[in-house]
């Protein structure tokens, strides 16, 4: 998948802020497509007549705010998920590196999959809450927010209900990683040049392509997972799911038997449409935020341009650069003080 590259000229807090702002902004802007995708996966009545009709019917029945149902929980989940994913990924990659610090593409992608599973394990209850908030009618809501949803699900259905469908996250990671690997091992042939020469636009296209292929392969697992997250005997219409089931295998069987094989990709149109604007906003917002931080750190001449500041060593870290500036400033002040004493 597309990821923003770490810049050693930023502090850890600045990098986290840039990634967080870019993630929240891109999720918020593309939230209507995410809502329609999840409604399609759950199988609510909105999705009986296709992608565009879902937008119209959702607006007519629940109003404009329905397109941002669950968005606050989704954005909140982004921070712990990203932090855990990054920390786990670094640990796994470091473990698999050879003596020269190299790692194969397949192992790197596998490490990403394992890191994703680890992050999902910690933040999975938030994903269940997001699905419940999106599946319900916001004008006749059962749940009133994050804490209320967590407490209601825990009280009525037990703690394990907050992890219902988690095994599908593990199963879905396999085709997802395979999809990423298939794309990345063919990038050199696609662009007819080595990967270290790819431009920013090429990397963006690569990320969107990898995400599209990987998500298409893992989408049936996510569809069943969303149905398992949404179904509850304590909710109207059992949470809005279009089939009733007793477990993961039974859910697969019932969906295929009653709706057909292609229904496992319900909501895929909205998901595909979302890929380009989501990653486009993610990249552009990150770069804008990074420029402001680089200007603040003293590496570039303007927050609106990547033009490097003359005389600044770009290989220095932000703390090292501040120490150099402090040293030069003190030396200049001492030289001026010495000059004044010589005059007297």
UniProtKB/TrEMBL annotation:
Solcar repeats lie at residues 14-95, 103-190, 198-292. Belongs to the mitochondrial carrier (TC 2.A.29) family. It comes from the Eukaryota. Coiled coil: none annotated. GO terms for biological process: transmembrane transport. Signal peptide: none annotated. This is Solute carrier family 25 member 43. It is found in: Mitochondrion inner membrane. Keywords: Membrane, Mitochondrion, Mitochondrion inner membrane, Repeat, Transmembrane, Transmembrane helix, Transport. It is a multi-pass membrane protein. GO terms for cellular component: mitochondrial inner membrane. The chain crosses the membrane at residues 161-184.
């Amino acid at each position: 998948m597309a990821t923003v590259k770490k810049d050693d000229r930023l502090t850890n807090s600045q990098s986290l802020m840039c990634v967080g702002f870019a993630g929240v902004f891109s999720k918020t802007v593309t939230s209507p497509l995410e809502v329609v995708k999840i409604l399609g996966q759950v199988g609510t009545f909105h999705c009986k007549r296709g992608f565009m009709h879902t937008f119209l019917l959702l607006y007519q029945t629940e109003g404009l705010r329905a397109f941002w149902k669950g968005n606050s929980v989704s954005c909140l989940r982004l921070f712990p998920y990203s932090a855990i994913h990054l920390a786990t990924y670094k640990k796994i990659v470091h473990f698999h590196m050879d003596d020269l610090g190299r790692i194969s593409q397949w192992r790197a992608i596998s490490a990403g999959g394992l890191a994703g599973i680890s992050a999902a394990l910690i933040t999975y209850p938030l994903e269940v809450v997001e699905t419940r908030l999106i599946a319900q009618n916001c004008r006749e809501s059962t749940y009133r927010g994050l804490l209320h949803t967590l407490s209601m699900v825990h009280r009525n259905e037990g703690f394990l209900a907050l992890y219902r469908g988690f095994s599908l996250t593990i199963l879905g990671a396999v085709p997802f990683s395979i999809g990423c690997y298939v794309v990345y091992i063919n990038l050199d042939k696609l662009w007819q040049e080595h990967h270290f020469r790819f431009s920013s636009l090429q990397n963006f296209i690569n990320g969107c392509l990898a995400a599209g292929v990987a998500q298409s392969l893992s989408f049936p697992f996510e569809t069943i997972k969303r149905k398992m997250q949404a179904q509850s005997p304590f909710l109207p219409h059992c949470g809005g799911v279009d089939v009733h089931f007793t477990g993961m295998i039974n859910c697969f069987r019932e969906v295929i038997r009653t709706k057909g094989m292609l229904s496992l990709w319900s909501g895929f149109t909205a998901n595909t449409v979302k890929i380009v604007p989501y990653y486009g906003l993610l990249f552009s917002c990150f770069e804008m935020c990074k420029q402001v931080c680089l200007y603040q750190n003293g590496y570039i001449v303007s927050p609106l341009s990547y033009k490097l500041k003359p005389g600044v060593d770009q290989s220095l870290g932000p703390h090292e650069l501040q120490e150099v500036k402090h040293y030069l400033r003190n030396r200049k002040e001492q030289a001026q003080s010495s000059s004044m004493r010589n005059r007297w």
